[in-house]
Specification:
The chain is α/β, with parallel strands linked by helices and 498 residues long. It folds into two domains: 8-133 and 199-497, Aldolase class I (TIM Barrel, Alpha-Beta Barrel), CATH 3.20.20.70; 138-191, no CATH class. The protein is 37% helix and 10% strand. The strands form three sheets. It has an eight-stranded parallel barrel, surrounded by seven helices. Strands 1-10 form a two-stranded antiparallel sheet. α3 crosses α10, α10 packs parallel to α13 (265-278) and α14 crosses α16 (365-377). The chain is globular. It binds flavin mononucleotide (FMN) and iron/sulfur cluster (SF4). Iron/sulfur cluster is lined by residues 412, 415-416, 435-441, 453-455.
Length: 498
C-alpha cells in the first residue's frame, strides 16, 4: 500500500474511556432514527468484505459466525459487506442477484438479530462493478489478447507484415517503444490488466448501464427486504460503477456524464427505482465519497451537491467514505488484478499508522461535516454517517456534539474488537483491543484471503471447536468476551457461563 512520504508513525489515541453512567447518558449511546428504522445508539459497523462466501456467492457458516461475532458486540447497526447485484460469477463475494440467494441471506439476518438480543439492525450494501482483468503475462498478451489494429502496423512501419510477425515484433519492443506503438488503454491492459470504464461508450453493455442498473438494484433491494434485512445501502463509493458515474472524470455524452446534474442522474434513477420496489417504509440510503482524492476527481463542492440531491430524493441516510480508486492504484504483479486501495486515494480510504502530519485518524471528518452542513442548509434532517480512523469514545462524542455527523462508523476498530460498543457502554472501555491501524487486515483483503485481525487471530488457537483459516494458522473470529459484570447482558449462554 502507498504511504505518505513523511513516514510519521502514529499510535492510536482513544483517550479516556467513560464510566457506564457517562456512556449511558452520552450522545453516542442515544437513539436515532434512520428513515423508519430506529437505532438504539449512534454506532455503526460499515461494510467490510471478509472473503467468506462460497465461490458461487452463497452465505457460509463462516459468514454466519463472522456477523454473529460482530452482533454480540451490539452496535446499533451493521452493514453487510458489498454484495453483488448481478447473477454472474464473482468469486467468494456475497451475491444477491437471484432469489436463490435469499434463504442464506435470511439465515444471516436471523443470526444477527438473535446474537445481538435484538439490539442490532442489519443492513446490506449492494454493489455493481465492471470487469477488471488480471495483469497478463506479456508473452500471452502479445500472442493472444491484443487485437492487432491498423495503428500498430502504421507505427511499426509494417503494413504488409503478417499478424504473427507483428505480434512477435511487439513482444520484443522496449517499454519506451511500446509507449509509442500502443494506445493508452492497450498499455494499461498490458501493465495493469484490462479494466472497463463507464465511459467506454463503444461497448453496448456499458452504453446500456443507465437502462439496466435501476432494475438490477431494485430487484436486489426487493430480495434484501424479503430476506428480512432492516435496510439497504446502495454502494455509490470507491472504485465501482455508481461512483464512476458520479465522478468528475465521467465525461459520457448521453446525459449521464459531464456536468454534476448529469452525473448524479443515474444514482438518483437507481434510488427512485429501488424506492418504488421496496416501498416508502423501508430504509434505503447510500454510501458515497466525500472526496475522490484523485487528480481531477470530485471535491466537496461536487459531493455536497450530491448529498443535497440524495436527501432531496428521499434517501434515509448518507454514509461517507473517501478515496479508494483504481486511477492511482499500484501496478499489480503479473497474474493479479489491480486493487483500488494501493495508491494515495486508497490510503485516504483506509489510512494506516505510517502517515503525514495530519495522521490517520479522522481524515474524513471535515469533508463529511461540510456535506452535512449543506444538507442541513437545504432543510433536510437526513442522518450522516462518518467513518475513517475513529476508535475512541471521546472523539466520537465530540463529533456528535459538534454536529459534524449523526452516526459514527467504526470499521477496522470493530474488526479489532467487535465488543467495542458493549465494552464502552458498560464501562469496560479499558478492556478494548484498540486497532493499531497496521492494515494487516486490508492486506489480506487485497490477497482475497479470509480477513482477520493481527490482535487476535493467533490467540487461543487450542480452543475446542475453533474455526480456522484455510491454512489452519489463524482463528476466524476473536474469542468471546465474558465480562465480569454487564447489567445489560441478557445473553443466556453468557449468563450461565458466569
Ligand atoms: C477488510 C476490509 C474490507 C472492506 N470492505 C468494504 C466494503 O465491502 N464496502 C465498503 O464500502 N467499504 C469497505 N471497506 C472500507 C471500510 O468500510 C471503511 O470505510 C474503511 O476501513 C475506513 O474506516 P476505518 O478507519 O474505521 O476502518 C473495507 C475495509 C476493510 C478493512
Ligand atoms: S489488523 Fe487489526 S489492528 Fe491492524 S488495522 Fe486491521 S483491525 Fe486494526
Amino acid at each position: 500500500m502507498w504511504r505518505p512520504p513523511q513516514r510519521i508513525k502514529w499510535k492510536p489515541a482513544p483517550g479516556r474511556w467513560p464510566t457506564r453512567e457517562e456512556a449511558v447518558n452520552s450522545r453516542l449511546f442515544s437513539p436515532v432514527n434512520v428513515g423508519r428504522l430506529h437505532l438504539e445508539s449512534r454506532t455503526w459497523v460499515p461494510a467490510m468484505v471478509p472473503w467468506r462466501a462460497t465461490e458461487e456467492g452463497f452465505v457460509t457458516d463462516e459468514n454466519l459466525e463472522w456477523y454473529e461475532r460482530f452482533a454480540r458486540g451490539r452496535p446499533a447497526a451493521i452493514v453487510v459487506e458489498a454484495t453483488g447485484i448481478r447473477d454472474i460469477p464473482s468469486g467468494p463475494l456475497l451475491r444477491i442477484g437471484h432469489d436463490r440467494f435469499i434463504p442464506g441471506l435470511r439465515d444471516l439476518v436471523k443470526t444477527v438479530h438473535s446474537a445481538s438480543g435484538g439490539h442490532t439492525r442489519l443492513l446490506i450494501q449492494i454493489i455493481d462493478f465492471l470487469a477488471v482483468r488480471r495483469r497478463p503475462d506479456p508473452e500471452k498478451f502479445f500472442a493472444r489478447y491484443l487485437e492487432i489494429m491498423p495503428w500498430h502496423r502504421e507505427r511499426l512501419g509494417a503494413e504488409k507484415w503478417s499478424e504473427e510477425r507483428i505480434r512477435k515484433r511487439l513482444a520484443q519492443l522496449s517499454d519506451e517503444e511500446l509507449a509509442r506503438v500502443l494506445e493508452t488503454r492497450e498499455l494499461e491492459a498490458l501493465r495493469y490488466g484490462y479494466r472497463e470504464r463507464v465511459t467506454d461508450m463503444d461497448l453496448p453493455h456499458i452504453r446500456d448501464l443507465p437502462r439496466v442498473l435501476p432494475d438490477l438494484f431494485a430487484q436486489a433491494g426487493r430480495r434484501a427486504r424479503d430476506a428480512g434485512f432492516d435496510g439497504v445501502e446502495l454502494h455509490y463509493a470507491h472504485a465501482y460503477t455508481m461512483a464512476s458515474f458520479l465522478s468528475r472524470l465521467n465525461d459520457r455524452t448521453d446525459g449521464y456524464g459531464g456536468p454534476r446534474d448529469h452525473r448524479v442522474r443515474l444514482p438518483l434513477e437507481v434510488f427512485r427505482r429501488v424506492r418504488e420496489v421496496v416501498g416508502d417504509d423501508y430504509t434505503v440510503g447510500c454510501r458515497f465519497l466525500a472526496e475522490e482524492c484523485i487528480e481531477g476527481g470530485n471535491t466537496v463542492e461536487d459531493t455536497a451537491y450530491f448529498g443535497v440531491e440524495f436527501a432531496h430524493a428521499g434517501m434515509d441516510f448518507l454514509s461517507l467514505s473517501r478515496g479508494g480508486k483504481f486511477d492511482d492504484a499500484k501496478q499489480p504483479a503479473v497474474g493479479w488484478s489491480a486493487y483500488p486501495y494501493t495508491g494515495p486515494s486508497g490510503y485516504e480510504c483506509m489510512p494506516q499508522y505510517v502517515s503525514d502530519e495530519r495522521g490517520p485518524f479522522g481524515r474524513n471528518i471535515e469533508p463529511t461535516a461540510a456535506i452535512r452542513n449543506a444538507v442541513r442548509a437545504a432543510g433536510f434532517t437526513t442522518p450522516v454517517i462518518v467513518t475513517g480512523g475513529i476508535h475512541g469514545f471521546e472523539q466520537a462524542e465530540t463529533l456528535l456534539r459538534e454536529e459534524q455527523a449523526d452516526v459514527i462508523g467504526l470499521a477496522r476498530q470493530s474488526l479489532a474488537d467487535p465488543d467495542w460498543f458493549r465494552k464502552v457502554r458498560s464501562g469496560h472501555g479499558d478492556e478494548i483491543m484498540v486497532c493499531e491501524y497496521t492494515n494487516y487486515c486490508e492486506a489480506l483483503d487485497q490477497k482475497h484471503q479470509q480477513v482477520t485481525c493481527q490482535l487476535w487471530d493467533r490467540k487461543g488457537l487450542k480452543e475446542p471447536g475453533l474455526r480456522r483459516t484455510k491454512d489452519g494458522k489463524r482463528r476466524l473470529t476473536p474469542a468471546i468476551w465474558r465480562p465480569e459484570y454487564d447489567p445489560d447482558n441478557v445473553d443466556p449462554e453468557e449468563m450461565s457461563a458466569k
